[in-house]
Records
---
Amino acid sequence: MLEYLIPSLATLLQPQTLLIMLGGTVMGLIFGALPGLSATMGVAVMLPITFALEPGTGLAMLVAIYIGGISGGLIPAMLLRMPGTASSVATTFDGFPLAQKGQAAKALGTGILGSFIGGVLGLAALMFLAPIVARVALRFGPFEYFSLTLFALSLVSILSRGAMVKGLLAALLGLTFASVGAAPLGGTQRLTFGLIELFGGFGIVPFMVGLFAISQMIRDVQQRATPIDVKLDIRGFGVTLKEVLDNIWTILRSALIGLGIGILPGIGGAASNLVSYAAAKQASKEPEKFGTGTVEGIWASETANNASIGGALIPLMTLGIPGDGVTAVLLGGFIIHGLQPGPLLFRTNPEIVSGIYMSYLIVLFMMLFLMFGAMRIFPRILQLPRHYLLPALFVMTVIGSFAFNNRLFDAWVMLGFGIAGYLLERFNFSLSPLVLGFVLGPIVEQNLRRSLMFSEGDLMPFLTHPFSAGFLVLTVASVLFGIYTESKKRRSSSQHTPPHP
Amino acid sequence: MNNHTSVHTDRWVGVAFALLGAALFWSSMGMRSGAYLGDPGPAFFPRVISILIILFAIILIFRARESNQDSQAGPVSDDASNSGGLRRFILTSVAALLYIPVISLIGFVFATSVYLITAIWILGPRKWTHAPVIIGFAVLFTLSLAFALTRWLGVAPPQGILS
């Protein structure tokens, strides 16, 4: 793998590729900075556009948007107390008060450097752990893959926002959508209702773009954008080496938390920034200062959410299981370029893997220089007029979905999933289990049927294969944990609710 | 403004899922089933999914009946509930829904320009002094996107049946 790093770097350092990555980083920063847009939406909108690029360049652009999007969320979090993305919620707790005290540069500088350091540590973990996980995963057969994907589905359903039963229903809905078209083994047509366009199933591009981008646009259109007026005196870069060293344990702990949470399927920066903030507050010698503008809180949040990126890429690249919503869309990027993420990717396309590592590193530096250099124009980004932005984005999603298969049917599919995504979130269903169900559905079914063919219908091998048994035990444990947590919540809420007269 | 989905809503959502599960089960009856060399066949997976959907939908309906407090909803816009916001939302949605079939009629460039002008006007402050900027942006954006698609990305946008 190491022998491919330098050639990959040489390819990425070509002017055109650098420009594409820079454009992706800027776009990601804008998507992350504007409340109502998100890194997921940015990657989803640009996904079909990257189809025309070389695989390495296309994936580099998507990684750039991902990193830019997660990092960009700190801008409105600190200047407006509005997190640009869910990954920056905890950044508002101390970033905004610190900026209000006239130390906007310190707040922004700390957040930017925290994002950079978290990203670097995430990348280091990705480069170190991914080959190890891939080597172990090469020993997996259909029994192990079935049990692993079942575990991933159960975990994300139970840990997602809202009631567990809604998470499970969302996952099952995703599995239903994945069943449309040709069955994984044998190619029997299912649920196509005679439509030739559905013989290949729902395309991953219209599915992802509709679910994340269109549903968000529907919400944004409903909310009238309030004029944003930010006047802040931003001078200097705000952060010193001494402050980094003073907070080194917070930084390292937050990176570990971000990594650990990022690796778990279905959760990512959205949870890691909050967990890391809570851990930092608990470990701090001055916990009472949290919430008043302490830099420790900013280090915790921004380091964790960027370290989650590396964590989320580990299961995506080694197992083909997305670690969060953005990596679920990134999975679409692999597929449209004819690449199958998983352990074999490290053997058949090591140059792609190295390219992702190197583009990740290059984009981190781009993000660092762009954000420090453009600190003073951040308030302008927040003033981009929505009534121009939203229709333009909609056009891009329509033409992007059309470009996927050269047919307008996919644009209708995209709209349909957009409406479905909007309605599901409106009724408090999380989209993560739905996405994972759609993505993993064919893998679950194919491996289940293959396993049963190998064992001639015998279920015992699922328990006698050690990894498979382990994943099944984890599945049962996560379901039981979910039931326990939910019944505890319901018991405590019924105790606090006064009885009806 | 009521920011909570009602228990009533969860009940109807459960009913919708139960109907979906039933429809999926009914569809699976027409698929090949039965084990061959251990393979349960293409009908097995949809059938299992449909049964689980019905089961969890029933749980959701019963939970909604038992529940004595409202569940938390996703974000709800205050603007959507007033007539101005609702009108804007409906008009934008109609424009978006018409945009796709109009592309196949008059082609990408014309349809997109018209859509952008319409949507920006509906969503924006609607001042006639902004009209030249809106038209200029719509045309420039459309032509730039068409150029980028054809020249750089090799994607031919739809020309329309009237072309």
---
Amino acid sequence: MVQKTYYLSGILPADFKDLQAALPEYRFLFFESTMDIVEKLLDERPDGIICHPKTHVPDGCALMNYLLTSKDPAWNKLPLAAVFHEEDGLEKAAEEAGADLLITYPFDETKLKAQFETFEKKASQKPPKYVNLNYLYDLAGGDTDFVKDMLETFGRKNQEQIIAMEQALSNKNWEELGKISHKAKSSYGFLGIFSLQIAAGMIEKFSFERPDIPKINILMEIIKTNSPYILQELQSE
Amino acid sequence: MPQILIIEDDELMLKALEFRLKKDGYTVQVAPDGRMALQLLESNTYDLIITDIMIPFVTGLEIVNKVKSDPNNKTPIIILSGVGLENVVLEAFKLGADDYITKPFIISELSVRVRKLLRI
């Protein structure tokens, strides 16, 4: 029987050890950050992802959104588990982010084993949201004109940024691509567009560290494919 | 009323900062690039400068260096940084930057850090 592999991030070494000891029949690969998981996913597909909802930037919730909004079934059908301590109070955040399984510490080993045996992608009740404007609304403090201005600005700038990124990629101008994607990453994070925040962050990393054209193309495709859905959602806000 | 200069080329971020700081009661001037920032710094006095690092023409680090090299200029500077530029932030501190905020900023954190540097 083939051992199932899960990518995992955001938990303490001691907690990771407990989890692996409780489930020795599964293989857990630990990653330092959610972005390390994103990078690995460009090469390989695990049997599932386990992440803490709120550690790292981008956090586990952002990672789950990135996968759920992907058009690639190899990603959007990956079972997702959120892992956290009971006192963190992150059940709601994890469920809203789309987690199929919640693992809370301290866990009951027998129950956890049973949950893992049936750990699979749940049939979703509703499609994932591409945008989370909580931060913007918080910042606006009720000023609807400000919110409207910001959304219109994004709508205009996003297309300009995508064109500029494509141009830089076409010219293999890695410094320029890195700079544009760095800026875009912050803008996407600002409007809770986590899928593109992650994609832009990954493009930035490749551009500044080691340009990988096929992978950058995959990430650019995510940005271009998701953008119309994002604009549609923003228009309905 | 304290006057703050924001130097940032990302329009969304610039608008967000300007909105927030004005809401907090400050007078705000903005510069979308380093060149305009230097022009404003030549002809105005500010109580605080908030600058991004990656900006056109003259970088945030060059702005920090220019301001902090002047012994008569005591204006505190906050660096704006996206995740992944930790080394550059360290560089800014070595040049004399007083604090930094990561983007997107935590609203309450921005207010607290600004008040702290303005000694309000």
